[in-house]
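Inverse folding, one chain.
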């Protein structure tokens, strides 16, 4: 967190461990992805701003399961430490939960400064989040995924549009304009009954203007 930053001070004041908390708050105010009672899988959760916000939104009837390479300690949040690419982490998530209402991924690679490289690494993480959706996301569940912008984004969005009824690319105000990060908001997962793979070709025509609905 940078010390001359409005959201840094706001995070301190409100007791959030990271300014990133406000990105999820703003995304949720606009897209209503997380609700009371939901089970949330938070990928790349450390230090825990998104987990805190999720915990507040789901309340005591819901659950938040956080995953990260780095440590995380947030009251009321279950934590699985490890690499999201490892089967062991998937099994440890599965030991806690069979399916979830929402997957949120703020995962980011270590920044190299070479934008094409950072974009490619961030796409790998985003695609892994999408694999987690195939394993854990409920039919009609939602997903929020961070990506660094670049030439592979468009193809990824196209793929997601076959898997979710509504897909929007959105950069919340709390995300610094200087950062190439943006978020893909995916609503209402379309799940094939057999294996969690998605059926092809949802109707894109009715997707627009639905952002404010649940
Ligand atoms: C921008 S931070 C997340 C901030 C967090 N959402 C918050 O609100 O405090 C990105 C996180 O992604 C995690 N990450 C990156 N690659 C990962 C991987 N392969 N498996 C698990 N976590 C990963 C990093 O360890 C880092 O903590």
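Residues assigned per position:
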């Amino acid at each position: 967190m940078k010390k001359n930053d409005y959201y840094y001070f706001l995070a301190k004041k409100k007791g959030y461990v990271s300014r990133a908390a406000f990105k999820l708050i703003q995304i949720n105010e606009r897209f209503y992805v997380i609700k009371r009672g939901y089970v949330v899988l938070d990928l790349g959760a450390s230090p825990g701003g998104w987990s805190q916000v999720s915990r507040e939104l789901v309340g005591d009837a819901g659950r938040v399961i956080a995953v990260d390479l780095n440590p995380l300690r947030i009251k009321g949040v279950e934590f699985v430490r490890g690499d999201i690419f490892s089967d062991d982490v998937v099994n440890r998530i599965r030991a806690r939960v069979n399916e979830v209402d929402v997957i949120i991924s703020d995962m980011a690679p270590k920044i190299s400064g070479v934008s094409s490289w950072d974009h490619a690494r961030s796409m790998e993480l985003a695609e892994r989040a999408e694999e987690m959706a195939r394993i854990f996301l409920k039919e009609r569940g939602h997903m929020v995924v961070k990506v660094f912008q670049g030439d592979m984004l468009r193809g990824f969005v196209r793929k997601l549009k076959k898997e979710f009824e509504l897909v929007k690319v959105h950069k919340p105000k709390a995300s610094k304009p200087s950062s190439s990060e943006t978020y893909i908001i995916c609503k209402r997962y379309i799940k094939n009954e057999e294996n969690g793979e998605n059926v092809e070709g949802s109707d894109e025509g009715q997707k627009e203007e639905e952002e404010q609905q649940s």
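The chain has one domain: 6-192. The first helix runs from residue 6 to 14.
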